């Protein structure tokens, strides 16, 4: 098969929600033509949908390297990097705090995630949680205001905001 036929086959698998087979087809297309940024971009999207962010980022970086003029390639890479920062911060927040832990590392990662993708709501939510755990309630509330502005109909976010405001009131007493 030629690269275009592999890509068509990949989309057939995607329509059946078989992302693993789709990835295999995209990888075959890349092996046949490693300098096609569009195939790398689409392969990256499929890896991301399959939860394999590191492979997704690898192909997204290569797409940007091959054609840095396409804004969608760069935005996709930035979104993946933001997702990876959020994942790392979540792991750090879920670990027990100990003498060797740096409580500011999750905040730094999450601030970078927000900078990379200002429309990525999860980054704001976790940033609010990270600030709240450090008793930094005003920045936590500010982060929640940002995500509520992005998703004004989300009742879960509004409930989390009320919890943060309650924490601030308790902290002030």
UniProtKB/TrEMBL annotation:
Protein name: Uncharacterized protein
UniProt xrefs under Pfam families: TPR_19
Entry keyword set: Repeat, TPR repeat
UniProt xrefs under SUPFAM superfamilies: TPR-like
SMART domains tied to this protein: TPR (SM00028)
Residue stretches of each TPR repeat: 3-36
GO molecular function: Hsp90 protein binding
Annotated InterPro entries: TPR-like_helical_dom_sf, TPR_rpt
Superkingdom of this protein's organism: Bacteria
PANTHER family per UniProt: STRESS-INDUCED-PHOSPHOPROTEIN 1, TPR REPEAT CONTAINING PROTEIN
């Amino acid at each position: 098969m030629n690269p275009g036929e592999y890509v068509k086959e990949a989309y057939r698998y995607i329509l059946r929600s078989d992302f693993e087979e789709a990835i295999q087809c995209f990888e075959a297309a890349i092996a046949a033509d490693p300098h096609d940024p569009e195939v790398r971009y689409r392969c990256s999207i499929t890896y991301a949908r399959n939860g394999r962010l590191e492979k997704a980022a690898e192909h997204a970086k290569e797409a940007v390297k091959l054609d840095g003029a396409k804004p969608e390639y760069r935005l996709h890479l930035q979104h993946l990097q933001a997702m990876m920062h959020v994942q790392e911060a979540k792991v750090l927040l879920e670990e027990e705090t100990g003498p060797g832990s740096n409580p500011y590392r999750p905040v730094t990662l999450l601030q970078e995630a927000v900078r990379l993708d200002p429309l990525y709501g999860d980054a704001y939510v976790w940033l609010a949680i990270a600030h709240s755990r450090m008793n930094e309630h005003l920045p936590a509330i500010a982060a929640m205001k940002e995500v509520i502005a992005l998703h004004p109909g989300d009742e879960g976010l509004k409930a989390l905001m009320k919890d943060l405001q309650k924490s601030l009131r308790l902290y002030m007493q």
